Amino acid sequence: xxxxxYGKGGVGxxxxxxxxxxxxxxxxxxVLQIGCDPKHDSTFTLAGFLIPTIVDTLQEKNYHYEDIWxxxxxxxxxxxxxxxxxxxxxxxxxxxxxxxxxxxxxLKEINAFYEYDVILFDxxxxxxxxxxxxxxxxxxxxxxxxxxxxxxxxxxxxxxxxVREKARTHPLKLAGLIxxxxxxRNLIDKYIESCPIPVLEIIPIVDGIQMSxxxxxxxxxxxxxxxxxxxxxDFYLNIADQLLTQPEGVVPTELPDQELFRLLSxxxxxxTETKSNLDxxxx
Length: 283
Prior knowledge:
By secondary structure, the chain is of the alpha/beta class. It has twelve helices and eight strands. Helix content is about 45%, strand content about 15%. The chain has an eight-stranded mixed β-sheet, sandwiched between helices. The longest helix has 17 residues, at about 150-165. The radius of gyration is 19 Å and the shape is globular. The termini are far apart. Belongs to the NifH/BchL/ChlL family.
């Protein structure tokens, strides 16, 4: 099973991805997490350090794929989760999506891509071009991480559009939304009423989760010493259990931008004046 994790930048994709990878490993699966971001920081709470990237290794080997070995690019992390960072071009130069394709190509060359029960792509930010959507070409399911805010749901709607487009030519489904770092879900519920998508889990705001990346550890690792966090681990185990049933998934149709603006503004507006101003801007 191959999973692509998307969501607005800063919504907690890497934190969810790392803990979900561990949850899947706890269920007996061999897991590979691929960080798909030039910042190459997806897996550092799993590995304990910033591992060398695929781009670094290819440059070091003068792009001779035949000279690259598994141990050059795959690093074992916490709970046996293997880690890869695709890396990417310098900021403002090149295409990060192209590097994802090269990463998959290399993993196939070294006979590693099909050696895992689960491969999880942790993808940077919103989908703004085909390059950012490249991991969807290799995935069975997309997972969207969102909070209960307008910006994250607006990004989620764009990701839905990308899934719909990719599903025309690939066997791709949207497994569902994961609400992260939120005490409320009223906007999430409003959105899925108009764009039906399963909600796999709502993960609340917990200090231990927010501090985990600062501490350079996953929630599961911290929970070994701070036992109350075991209850938090159950959120990720629940998501893993749902995914391991190989859910049917959906291919929803995104909402038009103006409709989405009106839908969410009607939920959050405090006055008629606010709604009138928004309607004026959308004319």
